[in-house]
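in:
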């Protein structure tokens, strides 16, 4: 039987000219199997031998003990969400509905199931899927596999991998340092869809390698020609082969195959043939071969190229030939190198392109149209049908739109917003006035491109004829605008809807309409409370709002946001607490974490710290259960604020440090402010103001001055750091800036950021009490509106600083008020200042009593600075106390402390990693550091060591 077009005799398998590259890849595989994560991206133009090198490496270098998972990407499948992942894990049997019981999906890996199931499977509904939870679950699936054996992931033609699979590869590689993992990728370069940016920082590390395959040199070309030719080649033939092929192995093989097919020898007589074929050898040969075949062969070949499948029944139906004839043609295509050797796919994408090149675009579109109909009628997954439809100029029939909608729903179920966006976009173009469809698209774009989402929402607002539809669009606009720091626009949009909606709905509207109105009101407050310039509008709206009962999720969220607005205005702490108690009591998490976060904010200002901790801990538990990392980081940052205001700087810093470590792994880390602030405050109190200043200097959030919460907390942290560095004027400048900003925004809560008290105390301690009187009076006026123990205590502290004649009485009252509150650090300051005043008046005995309490309170707060100062005063008063050298536990970072506490409580490394959303490697590194710092040999000694260091175990 004569050979087919360009058929080779196996030179690719011998990898002529690739010995060095193969050795490098083998070395990387061995290193990975020894426990050092490796990633290799093999790139080069089509036909350069990337796939051959990959196969050779896996066949001859991958240890038998390793788990090797492979995937080959295809252009038509580039939009199939998690398609590469599903092909990789296919041999493990994890893509069927009963896979949930598989041992490898234990623990955190269970979150991966929706990404693995076949399209239309029983995964979570689109409303409950979480993109990050799927990535997190797939990470733990890989970890589970690595606990059994080294893991090798090989992805060929990764430039056509779907976005979700690429995101997962990047996510995995950034979290597997020091683990037995090797990721081998091949990619065409240059290509219109580079993958390097997704993996760039990993590839540039010590365990990353970008391996660009060069053309074969003269010796390599000569070896191939000698191996593939019948007889010795002439010098001119060799030179022509090298020149025409450019050293590309695929082109060279096809050239030589055609020479053989024509019965020519590799001499000068073959030179005219080489010149005729030219550089586009694959296209020329395929086109020439196809032109010489019967019509039914051409139809089958084109059907295979369009379907990218070789199922005889589907190919027969599309080509219009009998099944048995189609089967025979498929065998012919395989023998002639149109199909790969295994007969399951086209040999090369260059071949596939050549099979369709002679069709004019209209004919090609008709063929794809028929292919989509065929796949749809055959009940193939919606994503396969959609892949064909997306290649058409415009899906124009109802069934096409239905198929695209089904594919979008499957993509959402898999947590693949990019694919769902691609499927929904033609639907929106076909039905531009369908507001619900545009809102669905905007919701997905909000996860990947919020600015584009806002444009669609603007269009929805303009085209919506029904006010209810406009209201739904306005709510979505408000939540999306927050992500891109455009909340004033959201306030304007929501305000316009609020002006019109009550009259449209009427006083006796249905329950669904009342809930919609409540949603709009709540979204208005959420957006309006973000920036200073919109706070006056929020106060105006709140005054006009009726008190909701709290019977629905939207009503509970509105209650919480109304409480926040009232608290910032310094109005009635009793009413604010009553509102949040109703909101938190019935909160079911249906609207995300806004209710819990808002309630915690108010409870903190009201001094109800235990209740606030309960609320935020519920959110933390819910976030962990669903792997919602953004909510988890927000909750950790919020809890850090509560703990800091309660005077627990160590625990506050630990929470904030964990939040920072998690955020640094995510794309949105630049928007994280509160954890940075809390880490800096903790460091300053623990005697590291220089480090604290360095932490604050890394903040890069744009327009910081515009925001209500982040800006003022940031300024207070800077003031604290400057004062601890001895820069009183710098600290005062930050505090006064806070005061001016709060006045402009109309914030009148004395405890939101008590800049007035801190400035008054700094001035008094600097001998400038006269300058502080006005500040004290300002604070006392604010406290009259928000009269809670901590606020009264701070006002008494500040008044005592400027009224030395009544200082003892004022400070005694401050101690009495603050010792019954949750403000332990402020209580410490009151005890210390009272001790100092008594000492100044000659009552050393009474002074010692209060200064001992001050030392104890400062130690319990974790404030080395305050403890040192209180001890110095106690010694001056005649008290005896060992020098404060600092416990060894104080040398632990916040993350080390949190990990140590969990390990001491019995959690395994894996449980710690899953709970804190960090990697196993991170936990191991932290524990090693903890053992060294505490002087212990292992986790069994941790409980005693932590207790010995007076480190409270977890609540």
């Amino acid at each position: 039987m004569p050979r087919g077009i360009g058929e080779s005799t196996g030179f690719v398998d011998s990898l002529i000219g690739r010995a060095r590259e193969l050795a490098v890849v083998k070395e990387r595989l061995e290193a990975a199997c020894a426990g050092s994560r490796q990633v290799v991206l093999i790139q080069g133009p089509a036909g350069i031998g990337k796939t051959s090198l990959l196969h050779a490496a896996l066949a001859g270098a991958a240890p038998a003990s390793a788990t090797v998972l492979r995937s080959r990407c295809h252009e038509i499948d580039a939009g199939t969400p998690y398609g590469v992942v599903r092909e990789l894990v296919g041999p493990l049997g994890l893509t069927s509905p009963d896979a949930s019981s598989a041992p490898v999906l234990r623990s955190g890996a269970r979150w991966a199931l929706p990404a693995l199931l076949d399209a239309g499977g029983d995964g979570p509904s689109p409303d409950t899927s979480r993109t990050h939870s799927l990535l997190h679950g797939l990470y733990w699936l890989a970890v589970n596999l690595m606990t059994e054996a080294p893991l090798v992931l090989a992805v060929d033609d990764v430039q056509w991998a779907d976005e979700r699979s690429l995101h997962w590869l990047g996510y995995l590689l950034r979290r597997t340092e020091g683990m037995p993992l090797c990721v081998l990728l091949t990619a065409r370069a240059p290509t219109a869809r580079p993958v390097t940016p997704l993996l760039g920082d990993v590839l540039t590390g010590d365990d990353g390698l970008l391996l660009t395959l060069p053309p074969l040199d003269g010796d390599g070309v000569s070896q191939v020609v000698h191996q593939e030719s019948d007889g010795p080649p002439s010098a001119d033939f060799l030179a022509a082969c090298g020149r025409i092929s450019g050293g590309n192995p695929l082109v060279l093989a096809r050239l030589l195959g055609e020479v053989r097919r024509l019965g020519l020898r590799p001499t000068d007589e073959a030179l005219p043939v080489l010149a005729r074929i030219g550089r586009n050898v694959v296209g020329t040969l395929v086109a020439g071969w196809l032109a010489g075949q019967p019509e039914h062969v051409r139809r089958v070949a084109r059907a295979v190229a369009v379907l990218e499948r070789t199922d005889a029944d589907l190919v027969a139906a599309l080509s219009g030939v009998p099944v048995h004839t189609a089967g025979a043609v498929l065998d012919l295509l395989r023998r002639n190198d149109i199909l790969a050797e295994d007969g399951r796919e086209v040999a090369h994408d260059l071949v596939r392109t050549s099979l369709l090149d002679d069709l004019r675009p209209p004919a090609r579109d008709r063929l794809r149209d028929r292919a989509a109909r065929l796949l749809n009628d055959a009940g193939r997954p919606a994503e396969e049908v959609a892949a064909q439809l997306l290649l058409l100029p415009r899906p124009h029939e109802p069934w096409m739109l239905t198929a695209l909608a089904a594919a979008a729903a499957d993509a959402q179920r898999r947590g693949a917003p990019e694919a769902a966006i691609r499927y929904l976009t033609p639907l929106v173009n076909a039905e531009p006035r369908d507001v619900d469809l545009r809102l669905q698209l905007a919701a997905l774009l909000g996860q990947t491109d919020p600015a584009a989402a806002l444009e669609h929402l603007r269009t929805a607002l303009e085209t919506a004829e029904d006010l209810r539809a406009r209201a739904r669009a306005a709510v979505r606009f408000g939540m999306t605008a927050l992500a891109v720091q455009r909340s004033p626009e959201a306030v304007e949009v929501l305000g316009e809807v609020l002006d019109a909606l009550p009259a449209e709905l009427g006083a006796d509207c249905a329950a669904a309409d009342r809930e919609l109105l409540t949603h709009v009101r709540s979204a208005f407050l959420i957006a309006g409370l973000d920036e200073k310039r919109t706070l006056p509008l929020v106060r105006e709206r709140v005054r006009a709002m009726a008190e909701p009962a709290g019977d629905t999720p939207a009503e509970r969220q509105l209650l919480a946001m109304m409480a926040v607005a009232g608290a910032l205005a310094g109005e009635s702490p009793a009413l604010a607490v009553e509102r949040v108690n109703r909101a938190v009591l019935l909160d079911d998490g249906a609207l995300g974490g806004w209710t819990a976060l808002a309630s915690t904010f108010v409870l903190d200002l009201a001094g109800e710290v235990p209740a606030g901790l309960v609320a935020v801990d519920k959110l933390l538990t819910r976030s962990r259960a669903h792997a919602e990392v953004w909510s988890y980081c927000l909750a950790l940052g919020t809890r850090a604020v509560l703990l800091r205001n309660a005077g627990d700087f160590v625990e506050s810093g630990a929470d904030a440090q964990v939040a920072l470590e998690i955020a640094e792994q995510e794309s949105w880390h630049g928007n994280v402010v509160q954890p940075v602030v809390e880490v800096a405050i903790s460091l300053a109190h623990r005697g590291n103001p220089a480090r604290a200043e360095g932490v604050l200097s890394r903040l890069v959030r744009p327009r910081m001055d515009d925001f209500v919460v982040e800006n003022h907390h940031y300024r207070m942290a800077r003031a604290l750091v400057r004062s601890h560095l001895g820069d009183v004027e710098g600290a005062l400048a930050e505090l006064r800036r806070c005061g001016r900003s709060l006045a402009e925004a109309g914030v009148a809560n004395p405890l939101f950021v008590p800049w007035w008290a801190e400035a008054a105390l700094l001035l008094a301690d600097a001998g400038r009490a006269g300058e502080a009187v006005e500040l004290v009076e300002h604070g006392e006026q604010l406290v009259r509106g928000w009269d809670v123990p901590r606020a009264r205590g701070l006002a008494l502290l500040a008044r005592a600083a400027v009224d030395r004649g009544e200082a003892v009485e004022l400070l005694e009252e401050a101690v009495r008020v603050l010792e019954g509150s949750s403000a332990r650090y402020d209580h410490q300051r009151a005890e210390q200042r009272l001790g100092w005043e008594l000492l100044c008046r000659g009552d050393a005995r009474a002074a010692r009593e209060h200064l001992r309490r001050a030392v104890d309170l400062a130690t319990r707060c974790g404030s080395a600075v305050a403890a040192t100062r209180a001890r110095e005063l106690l010694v001056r008063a005649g008290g005896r106390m060992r020098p404060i050298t600092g416990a060894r536990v104080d040398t632990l970072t916040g993350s080390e402390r949190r990990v140590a506490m969990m390990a001491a409580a019995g959690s395994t490394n894996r449980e710690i990693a899953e709970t804190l959303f960090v990697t196993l490697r991170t936990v191991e590194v932290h524990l090693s550091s903890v053992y060294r710092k505490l002087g212990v040999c292992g986790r069994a000694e941790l409980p005693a060591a932590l207790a010995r260091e007076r480190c409270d175990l977890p609540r």
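note: The domain at 432-528 is CATH 1.25.40.10 (Serine Threonine Protein Phosphatase 5, Tetratricopeptide repeat).
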